[in-house]
Every structure is written in C-alpha cells, then in structure tokens.
Design a protein that fits this description.
Layout: E1 9-14, E2 32-33, E3 36-37, H1 38-47, E4 52-59, H2 61-64, E5 79-83, H3 88-97, E6 105-110, H4 118-128, E7 133-139, E8 144-147, E9 153-157, E10 163-172, H5 173-186, H6 193-198, E11 204-208, H7 219-231
Length: 233
C-alpha cells in the first residue's frame, strides 16, 4: 500500500493499439478477461492508491471522444481519456502532455497486461521516488540460445543477468519527459519507455514483477490469463 499522503502520481495506461494479432474484430483492450474489460482491470488497480492523482487512459482516436461506458466504473474525478497516436511512443507522449502539474512520479502501463498486482505497482513507484527509473520484470529461467541465419545454434547465452521486462514502469516526471523529448527530437523509437532513459545514461533499476503480469497478444492468451486470475483467488 502507498504511504504518501500527497497525490502526486500520474498513471498513463496505453490502450491505443488495434490488437490485430488476436484475430478479433473487437479491440483487445476492450475485451473481457477475468470478469471485466481488460483496460478496466488496470484503471481500477491504479485507483486503489490514494497517492494517484490521475489515471490517463490513452485510447484509439476514434474512441477517445466517446469511450465505452464501462470505463467510468471508477473514480471519474481522477480519470482522463486521451487520444493515442500511430505508434506506442506517440500514445505515451500524448499521455505525458496531459499530466496535471502536481504529478511528480509517472507510471506507464500497458493495458494488454491486465493482471498487474498492487505489490509490483508499489515497488516501481517506491524506486521512482528515489530518483531512478524502475522496470518491473522477472529473471530469465530458460536456457537461451543464439542462432545464425540458418537457425543453427551459435552459442548458449549466459542468462544470469537477463530479465524479461514488463510494465508497469515508473519514473520521476522530469526524467521521462526529458527522455521522450530527446527521443522525438532525434527520431528515436523504442520498445519500452525505460530504453529511452537508458540511451541518455539515466539510472534505471529492475524490480521484481510477476508471472501473472503476462501480456495478452494472441487469442490463446485470453484463456491463459483467465487461468492465472483463478489461481490468485
């Protein structure tokens, strides 16, 4: 649980993708999983914290002006809907520009990971409050092989310092705003937000995430997420 009385955390939930890899005509982030729409899981989880000043749900532009009504099953006074961009980074940037001035710590989370737990959220925020970026993740446990163009094994990769990065990720506001401003000026894109901080030499720490925080990408992932949700009950 949060221990800071001042509401100075802003959460950006990226939910502007098309989810084409699921093969469904319905937007992935609006589909139901574990009892509610995927996006609503993350919105409500973040609003459990009293130090969260605002949750910004970044939706496809066609939905931003008329979002699905279930999204308002939360504290609407702390909810803001923004219009996303063409790429994930554009959507995060849109969320950053909508943050109110009182926000000092920024959490960025992908709606495609609906089973974020409160402990992971606490850990990344706690690290960000110390002045470093924080990335939730889990250490690699599988043996890793590097292959050549013909799929022949070239080497076995040492996994002892390798992690699988997840979201949420959290940052001091000035850090992530600077990282995004520089990236946009240089035309740089990255697969996650921490990478933009890393390229500028800013400190970023890995913190323990959860195997439950899987990313729903393909149709089969919905059944897996349902099973993981049941095991936590």
């Amino acid at each position: 649980m949060d221990t800071v009385s001042t509401a100075d955390v802003g959460v950006i939930i990226v939910a502007a993708g098309t989810g084409s890899r699921t093969g469904s005509t319905e937007l992935k982030q609006f589909r139901w999983v574990a009892g509610k729409p995927m996006l609503l899981h993350s919105v409500q989880r973040c609003m459990e914290r009293t130090d969260v000043a605002v949750v910004i749900a970044v939706l496809p532009r066609s939905f931003a002006g008329d979002p699905p009504p279930w999204i308002f099953q939360c504290d609407v006074d702390r909810l803001l809907v923004s219009a996303g961009g063409r790429e994930r980074g554009d959507s995060v940037y849109a969320g950053l520009t909508d943050l109110p001035p009182e926000v000092r710590t920024v959490v960025i989370h992908d709606a495609a990971r609906p089973l974020m737990d409160a402990d992971t959220l606490e850990r990344v925020i706690a690290v960000a409050r110390t002045g470093s970026g924080a990335v939730a993740g889990v250490p690699m446990t599988d043996t890793l092989k590097r292959v050549d163009e013909a799929d022949r094994v070239a080497e076995t990769v040492d996994r002892s310092h390798l992690w699988r990065a997840q979201t949420p990720q959290a940052f001091p506001r000035d850090m992530i705003e600077r990282a995004y401003a520089d990236a946009r000026a240089c035309g740089v894109r990255a697969t996650d937000d921490a990478a933009l901080c890393e390229r500028l030499g800013m400190p970023v720490l890995m913190v323990r995430g959860s195997e439950r925080a899987m990313k729903i990408t393909e149709e089969a992932d919905f059944a897996r997420a349902e099973a993981l949700a049941l095991t936590a009950q």
